[in-house]
Write the structure tokens for this entry.
Amino acid sequence: MLKITPYRRHDPSSQPASLYEPYRSTLLRAPRQPLVLLPHTLSEITGPVYGHSDIRETDNDLTRQHAGEPQGERIIVTGRVLDDNGRPVPRTLIEIWQTNAAGRYRHHNDNHPAPLDPNFTGAGRTLTDDNGVYRFVTIKPGAYPWKNHPNAWRPAHIHFSLFGTAFATRLVTQMYFPGDPLFGYDPIFQSIADERARQRLVAAFDLATTKPEWALGYQFNIILRGREATPFERNGK
Amino acid sequence: MDFTPTPSQTVGPFFHLGCTEHASAGSLVTAATRGERIRLTCRVLDGDGAPVPDAMIEIWQANAEGRYNHPEDLQEKPLDPGFSGFGRLATDENGKCTFATIKPGRVPWNNGTLQAPHINVSVFARGVLKRLPTRIYFAGHPANVEDPALALVPEQRRQTLLARAEAARPSEWRFDIHLCGENETVFFDV
């Protein structure tokens, strides 16, 4: 017999709905049938150890990936990746992508008539350290229009992708900036019904992270699913 | 401190920039990889049956012996050093992407019986607010009838989890993912 310690299930109120009609793309893309509850087996408690070998020195500094410096407001985004037992998730890959300061992605499908920045790609990657800490230096992304509804604008955000320790812990999300006036109008942000849950996606300005004469600092902690039983419990302590 | 898990958000239409432009993984095999080579073409369709040209598919699978390349898989089966078991691709304008991989072996269910060979799949896309986990099984495999995960699925929907081989080319497998609509694929609460 295999001893499998499952990952804790999400409280549904901590997550967005699948179908959220104000976000129009969900209408043709959200499943309508109930999900089939799958017990965790080896397939779910294992997962890829991915991206560890090919991280370059400038991958976590999006302001140093080109010959010159990008336009915009330099920022530091840092935090910890923890599981829902409060334990650090060490050595896990974080990938980020974002617009430049003008709200334009370096992407062939982005037709927003805002300038591209030859010194900014908008993609970064890093591993958390042994304490689950990560750190990026980048440019504050811009808001941009999209066609979801008349005069629709996305609040400035940075996309985050994390693997964690298992297939069960995979997370793709977006980090927002405090006090954005577009929050109330953004159906992607509002797809999370619970106000406290939405606030978990908003980074906190942090003077201690801010580097004098250099860059504003933001703290953004990310919580992945943890195990139902802690190792202490498993040891009977 | 609040340790409630961070909410998911859609990957959006521009994920290529961070995830697949420089870090895609379409081929899981090298010349040294053990196992039966397959090419697995996934196609993602929306509720109107239209191809989804901006989805990202990730796959996670055991090696040919049925062992995952992960520290928590402690089975006494050989690891295949060159085989990570992870693949990731963006779909093209036809909603398709093709992985070169091997047929996985059977991995245990929690009571010690064996699962049928399967590949674990995550689907991400614009309009998909939470990752959609599903599984690919291989049509015609004799173990499918005794697979405990398939048994959890209403019988009339099990066929949505079957990849099918082309009659003339048995190493070419096709798997359609219907995000919603009449033939909606079974997605799992993982």
Observations:
- The mean pLDDT of chain A is 95.
- Chain A is about 5% helix and 25% strand.
- Chain A touches chain B through 83 residues (CB under 8 Å).
- The first strand of chain A starts at residue 36 and ends at 37.
